[in-house]
Structures are given as C-alpha cells and as structure tokens.
Amino acid sequence: MRILKHRRSFRYALALMASASLGCIATTTPVSAQDSAAMFENYANSNYTYCDAKLVGAFYQKGADYGKTVIGAKIANGIEQNLPPILSSSRIAGNRCEWIDIPHSYADAEQLGSYWGIATSSAKAKAASFYTEGKAGVITGILASQGQNTGWGTSEDAAFASYARSGFSYCDAKLIGDLWGWDPYRGKLEIGNKVKAGLIENIPGMLASSRNQGNQCDWSELGYSYNDAEKMGRAWNISTNNAKSVAERLSNEGRTEVIAAALR
User: Fold this and answer.
1) pLDDT tier, 11 (very low <50, low <70, confident <90, very high otherwise)
2) Does the reported pTM lie above 0.70?
3) Is residue 262 within 8 Å of 231, Cβ to Cβ?
4) For residue 128, which of 92, 108, 91, 102 has the smallest C-alpha distance?
5) Any idea where the domains of the chain sit in the sequence?
C-alpha cells in the first residue's frame, strides 16, 4: 500500500512539474534585448509557416505578427524546442488555420482536389487542416509530385520583386492585407503574384473591397515625406497638416495620380 501511494505521489509530482514547465513556456515572451526586426528575420529564415505564427500568436491571444516575433525570439535564444508544446497547446485550445493562412493558389487547391478525389472547396479545408497540424510537408509533397508550385516559399523573392516594380504602394499592400486579415508584407506578395500571373486587373477590385470594409491608411503609411507634404500644401494652397489629411483621403480613394501631379 505504501509503495502504491508513493508511486501515485511520484506521478502527481511529475504532472505538476510538467504543468509548471509548460506554463513557463507559455508565458515566455520575446526578450526586450532582441530587436524586433532581427526576431522577424529569424522567423522568416526558419521553416515555420505563417500558420504556425498564427497559432503561436493565438495562444497568447494576439495576432500572427506577435507569433512571428515569439518564434524568432525562441530561435535567437536557443530554445526553439519550446515551440512544439506551444503549438500543440494552441491546437488543443481550438485555434485553427484557414485556407487564406497557407501559401497556396486556387490552382493548387484544384490539384489537391483532383489528387484526393474531392471538391476544390473541400481540398482547401483539408489542406488548411494539414497546416494546422504542422504537416505542411504533406501538401508541398503532393503538389511537387504533381508538378505544381509548392507555395510562396519557393517564389517569394520573385513575388516581392514583382511588387516592387509594379508601382503599387505600401498603402495598397496594407489594404490588400487588411482585406484578408494578413500583414502588409503578405499583401505585397499577393500584389506581386497577381502581377506575375497577368492578373493585375484584379487588384483594383480587391482594393475597392478592402475600402468598402472600412480599411484605410494613415499618413505614416503613404510613403511620403514631410517635404512632400509641404509641396502638396503649396500646390493645393492649404497648410501642410491639411495637405497630409487630403493625401490620406486621396490615397484611400485610390486617386494617387492627384498627389503625383501636386509633386511634379
């Protein structure tokens, strides 16, 4: 009887230790000494996906950007082994990724549907489920075997370069990101991918949809300098502060050609 009680006590102690360990992991946040840009770069250079970042962020009741910094900080501090328990706990809590959270196109969804013998919409849900469970390799493996692009990871630089040459602004990228619940960087990639695919005519409609949802940019997101604001003010015969407000309104209406004319 004493041995049985001792074993039960030992198991109980182990459970408490495991619980405390997970609690410590869960409450660990990026150290202040780490620069946020460096942490994001650590995440970007890792094999963790946007879905992983979303799950980590959701665990802390925050967004994917926060999740990216947590992942980057864990890597920087040599405690990357703490991430799987956080991801597992997030899944247990019911956090999930959707199709828009994974880096694949509609053509990929069609190919997956054909491979699995299910509808495209069902293939999207199934693919998102694989990413949620940390099995992105299953999806990329299927697509690679079928000769399909395996996601943005293989063409991210090309997509970003396409965006950079497109003439679309940071505000445009932010609005497209806001439309789908993404960060501006992913909005840039979406613009770049659309341009590369010859679907640039789809972008104005996406921007309009985002504006209709109430998404907007402020002056700091327009990419203009204070000198630009002064020049706009002189062109429009208004104060510099009012010029900033007008520029915000014009940008959010998609009428950047008016601003360009004022800056000539």
Assistant:
1) very low
2) no
3) yes
4) 102
5) 2-92, 99-151, 155-212, 219-262
